[in-house]
Design goal:
The complex is a heterodimer of chains A (204) and B (282). Chain A has 10 helices and no strands. In chain A, α4 packs across α5 and α9 packs across α10. The longest helix of chain A is centred in the N-terminal third of the chain and has 23 residues. About 10% of the residues of chain A have low confidence. Chain B has 282 residues and is an alpha+beta fold. Among the domains of chain B are: 81 residues, no CATH class; 108 residues. In chain B, strands 5-4-7-8-1-2-3-6 form an 8-stranded antiparallel sheet, covered by helices on one side. The model of chain B has no long low-confidence stretch (mean pLDDT 84). The chains are: A mainly alpha (204), B alpha+beta (282). At the A-B interface, α1, α3, α4, α5 and α7 of A face α1, α3 and α4 of B.
Chain lengths: 204, 282
């Protein structure tokens, strides 16, 4: 499986997966220290993700709190056979971020806010606070995804980027880009299938 | 394109949309149902696409949140561990605080509204009660005034009757009866005269009411010369009317009394119609 290949990039990633599974096990057993450690590993990545989706720092912090509260409450639901903790946590974070983005309350707040502190960027991340070796690997992983996206057709890449980075639904993309909904669905499917092929080839 | 191929394409489309969180709620539900009956290849496709979507998160710039979040999370986790088994520790973030604060604010507002309405209702009731009490007091005051007025009138009446009784009680009085004349044949009059004290009592009956610009005038006639003994007005012609006459200190044993209708306040000599006339009897 691809998630296995992706998470198997280098020894540190394997170690990270093992470490995360152990932390998830401890969190499921209600170990507050394990929750703190998991938070230390992922808070900046997840906060960056939420901040980019929601465009507002306070909202992103709210959802980050909700994400780790959910991890604390639902760690026992994590299925080790169906993916890595990283994938589970990122999916959970994106789900909550998108839910808030599409909530009526948030949309109303957004209408009322004249200025949005938006300094969204689209580039691989580098963190000075992580150890250099881990940074290099994270950078490699990000670079690999970035290069795969670049190999898609512009039409495929655009719908995936708008859906992922702006949080737009397929209907909203169809409306915003003035293209049929069916075309949006096809481009998204084709793009994701191609990304799978590209990343699998690289890992092979 | 056969049905199997169609189903596969449909699954792939829904799967791509699902991992990118871009399906409608209905489509997402449909996909989750499909996933439950998915083949192993479809399961693998879903896991791969989910992994790709997660890897795309690495393209976001890393940002550091405020340290307070970690402190609150750990505090929440320890509170959960230390709480009685099964207790649910609800973590309040800013959004939930806002919702909770709104609910509290709404409840407080409703409470205040209810309290204010109660106070307003009480004040209205008390106001109405005071108003009713005021009306009652006003009625009582009017009744009291009426009673005082009646008492005063009765007192005057008693005083007048006592004065009249004083005249009647005198041992030596003259009684002069007067009869009605042509203008008012049914008229009747009586003078009780206490010569010793110079006071007299006049009683008249069946005399018509006087107009506002007129008075009845009593005359004492001696040797065909009328001497005014005072003026009076009849206000209640249905009953006998009594009047006290002062300063009737005369010693004549003969004479007559007459009553005429004269201009208001009386005149020196009679000018109007004579209503009653009666002579002293020796």
């Amino acid at each position: 499986m691809l998630f296995f290949f992706l998470s198997a990039v280098g020894r540190i990633l394997t170690q990270n997966n093992t470490r995360d599974r152990e932390l998830m096990r401890r969190i499921a057993s209600k170990d507050p220290e394990a929750l703190g450690l998991l938070y230390d590993h992922y808070n900046k990545l997840l906060f960056g993700l939420l901040r980019s989706i929601l465009k507002k720092t306070e909202e992103a912090e709210d959802i980050l709190q909700e994400v780790f509260t959910s991890i604390w409450e639902k760690a026992h639901q994590f299925d080790t056979e169906r993916g890595t903790p990283y994938t589970w946590i990122v999916s959970l974070t994106r789900n909550k971020g998108i839910d808030r983005l599409r909530s009526k309350v948030y949309k109303e707040q957004k209408k009322q806010d004249a200025v949005i502190d938006d300094d969204e960027a689209f580039f691989p991340l580098f963190s000075e606070e992580n150890n250099p070796l881990e940074n290099t690997i994270l950078s490699d992983r990000a670079k690999r995804v970035y290069e795969a996206l670049e190999k898609l057709s512009e039409k495929q890449r655009t719908v995936i980027q708008v859906a992922y980075f702006d949080g737009l639904s397929q209907s909203e993309i169809s409306e915003e880009m003035n293209i049929p909904l069916g075309t949006v669905k096809t481009r998204m499917r084709d793009g994701m299938i191609k990304l799978r092929e590209l990343l699998s080839q690289e890992m092979a | 394109m056969d049905e199997q191929q169609n189903n596969s394409l449909n699954f792939e489309e829904l799967c791509a949309g699902f991992v990118l969180n871009s399906l409608s709620e209905q489509e997402a539900d449909t996909f989750l149902q499909l996933l439950e009956g998915a083949t192993s290849q479809q399961q693998e496709l879903f896991e791969d696409m989910q992994a790709i979507a997660s890897e795309m998160a690495l393209l976001y710039p890393e940002l550091k949140p405020t340290d307070k979040i970690r402190e609150q999370l750990i505090e929440m986790a320890w509170a959960s561990v230390n709480s009685p088994k099964g207790a649910n520790i609800l973590y309040l973030n800013r959004f939930r605080y806002a919702v909770a604060a709104s609910v509290v604010f709404m409840l407080v507002s409703l409470g205040l509204l209810f309290y204010t309405q109660n106070i307003t209702s009480d004040l209205t009731r008390q106001g109405e009660l005071l108003s009713e009490q005021g009306k009652f007091m006003e009625q009582q005051s009017k009744m009291l005034e009426a009673r005082e007025s009646t008492i005063l009138a009765l007192r005057d009446e008693v005083e007048r009757k006592e004065e009249l009784l004083t005249i009647l009680e005198a041992r030596d009085v003259d009684l002069i009866l007067m009869d009605g004349l042509d203008v008012n044949p049914n008229g009747y009059g009586k003078v009780v005269w206490d010569k010793d004290n110079g006071k007299a009592l006049l009683q008249v009956a069946n005399l018509p009411s006087v107009p506002t610009d007129k008075d009845y005038q009593l005359w004492f006639i001696i040797d065909n010369q009328p001497i005014s003994a005072g003026v009076f007005a009849v206000e209640d012609p249905r009953n006998d009317n009594f009047f006290r006459i002062e300063e009737m200190q005369r010693g004549e044993a003969t004479g007559a009394f007459a009553i005429t209708l004269e201009p208001k306040g009386g005149v020196p000599q009679p000018t109007g119609d004579m209503y009653l006339l009666g002579s002293m009897i020796n």
